């Protein structure tokens, strides 16, 4: 059975140095031209030196008009290739893998960035007024957007990244295309699962054509959206098979959307009775299903904290790579885990009562859960900034203070961008 320290050869020939993967975490560290910065280089040098074999960047946007949040890096003819090269060099400084996550937010684009985001259909998302009503994409919008993913992948390769990940999870554009709730189109891009998956599969094909056969392509996919009538587990199994046929190298499985926060382990969204058996590895049972239908290399992300659970998951044979997000915000150096000296990674939600439940008991009110999610995420953003600025992460910082500072900083960044874009 594989151990955490074992390498893994992917179908494209790329070798992952070990079985740990740093999952994508949006950094918000771009400059006002949406270019990479030295802070990103510092951050990824620390993660690379910390021993995690594969690092996935936070989501990099394909279109300057539509961001997941101000501070996203964008590759859209806005220059900044030298900074990308610097980022790639720092992020591969331990001979590890550094893959760029590529994304378009679709309707999950904050109102302060765009009041009319593009999405598959005119189906809005009602979350405390954060998002504008989307405009349905035309055939030309769709074709142009697919080309944008391919161009960003080509730039990633040209600037020294060793792979790319297409973000098809968490309710962003591709995930919206996959969902029958967000995608109510009646053309070749909506309706049957085959049509809803067309955007993803055409994007994978365009990216593969842009980067060639020997470059790693990963897809992050929801095991399910956890919404009644949404992208289901059965849908996910079928899409995983199609992705395997399309020749991707690693499937990373996660789940949920902004509306259904399973990605952060919100148990109130979990519809299955056995969930408590896998309190740490939220999506392991789904991975078992995917493993039964395809042999595609599989990473699972969500809730892994103890060495024993990680090893148990690898021993189960259902997955090949352990994805880690939040623990790496306060601990960049993972060597103690890899050499067995550390048996458990920090679980701050438990200690600080962050995350779902922070503002009170596990709330049945979705708006409160969304606020909790925002608070927890912003607390982690703070640790990421500490790492990026060369400090030790401050885990004692108060949540409300962090939220306030974050909101002011993000608003300022959004306004500066708007000024710059309207001038240009
Ligand atoms: C601060 C933060 C930022 C995140 N940004 C992204 C992102 O850009 N892309 C993505 O696919 N997932 C993102 N996620 C989700 C993580 O990749 C991961 O799926 C989630 O945190 C669950 O893993 P964990 O329990 O190990 O933290 C983010 C999570 C956090 C905490």
UniProtKB/TrEMBL annotation:
The keyword Mitochondrion does not apply. Residues 16-334 form the NADH:flavin oxidoreductase/NADH oxidase N-terminal domain. The keyword Flavoprotein applies. InterPro entries: Aldolase_TIM, NADH_flavin_oxidoreductase, OxRdtase_FMN_N. It comes from the Bacteria. Keywords: Flavoprotein, Oxidoreductase. Pfam families: Oxidored_FMN. This is NADH:flavin oxidoreductase/NADH oxidase family protein.
């Amino acid at each position: 059975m594989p151990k955490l320290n074992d390498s893994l050869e992917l179908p494209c020939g790329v070798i992952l140095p070990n079985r740990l993967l740093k999952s994508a975490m949006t950094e918000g560290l771009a400059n006002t031209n949406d270019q990479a910065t030295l802070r990103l280089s510092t951050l990824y040098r620390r993660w690379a030196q910390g021993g995690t074999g594969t690092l996935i960047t936070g989501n990099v946007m394909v279109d300057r008009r539509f961001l997941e949040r101000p501070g996203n890096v964008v590759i859209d003819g806005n220059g900044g290739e030298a900074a990308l090269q610097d980022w790639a060099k720092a992020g591969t400084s331990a001979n590890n893998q550094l893959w760029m996550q590529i994304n378009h937010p679709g309707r999950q684009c904050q109102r302060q960035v765009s009041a009319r985001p593009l999405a598959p259909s005119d189906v809005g998302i009602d979350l405390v007024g954060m998002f504008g009503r989307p405009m349905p994409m035309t055939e030309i919008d769709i074709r142009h957007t697919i080309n944008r993913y391919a161009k960003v992948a080509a730039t990633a390769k040209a600037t020294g990244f060793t792979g790319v990940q297409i973000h098809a999870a968490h309710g962003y554009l591709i995930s919206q295309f996959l969902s029958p709730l967000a995608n109510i189109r009646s053309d070749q891009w909506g309706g049957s699962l085959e049509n809803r998956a067309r955007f993803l599969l055409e994007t994978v094909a365009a990216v593969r054509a842009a980067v060639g056969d020997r470059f790693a392509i990963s897809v992050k996919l929801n095991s399910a959206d956890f919404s009644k009538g949404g992208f289901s587990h059965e849908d996910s199994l079928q899409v995983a098979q199609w992705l395997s046929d399309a020749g991707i190298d690693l499937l990373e499985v996660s789940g949920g959307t902004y509306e259904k926060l399973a990605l952060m382990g919100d148990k109130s969204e979990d519809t299955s009775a056995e969930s408590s058996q896998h309190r740490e590895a939220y999506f392991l049972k789904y991975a078992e299903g995917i493993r039964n239908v395809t042999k595609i290399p599989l990473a699972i992300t969500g809730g892994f904290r103890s060495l024993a659970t990680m090893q148990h998951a690898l021993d189960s044979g259902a997955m090949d790579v352990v994805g880690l997000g939040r623990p790496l915000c306060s601990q960049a150096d993972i060597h103690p885990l890899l050499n067995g000296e550390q048996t458990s990674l920090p679980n701050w939600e438990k200690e600080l009562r962050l995350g779902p439940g922070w503002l009170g008991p596990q709330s049945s009110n979705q708006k409160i859960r969304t606020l909790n999610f925002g608070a927890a995420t912003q607390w982690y953003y703070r640790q990421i900034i500490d790492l990026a600025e060369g400090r030790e992460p401050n885990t004692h910082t108060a949540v409300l203070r962090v939220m306030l500072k974050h909101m002011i900083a993000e608003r300022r960044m959004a306004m500066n961008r708007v000024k710059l874009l309207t001038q240009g």
